[in-house]
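Researcher: Next entry in the queue.
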Amino acid sequence: MDRRVTTTKRDRNGKIVALCHAGQPWSPRKATDVIRDINSSKKSYYVKEAERRTYVRVSAGSLQTTTDEASENNLNNLPTT
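Model: Structure for this entry, 81 residues:
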């Protein structure tokens, strides 16, 4: 099951601690749980810009999307809640 991410929650240092999509029963989902979901192939998470999906992946124990900093599909560019 694919879950669309529209916002993130961050700690004081700016590290993503949860992925969110307002109105969804799974939201917010702790980053540790998202990592477990992705690694076990139970769920996938994505950011969507104009019909294009960019999937969230686990890299070195943290959540990432694309390396294109200018892209709205970049997880780091999403608004925080």
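Model: The chain has a mean pLDDT of 89.
Researcher: Noted, moving on.
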